[in-house]
Amino acid sequence: MISKDLLEVLCCPETKADLVLEGNFLISTDKKTRRKYRIEDDIPIMLIDESEQMNIEEWTEIMKKHNKDIN
Question: Facing residues of 69 across strands?
Answer without folding.
Answer: none
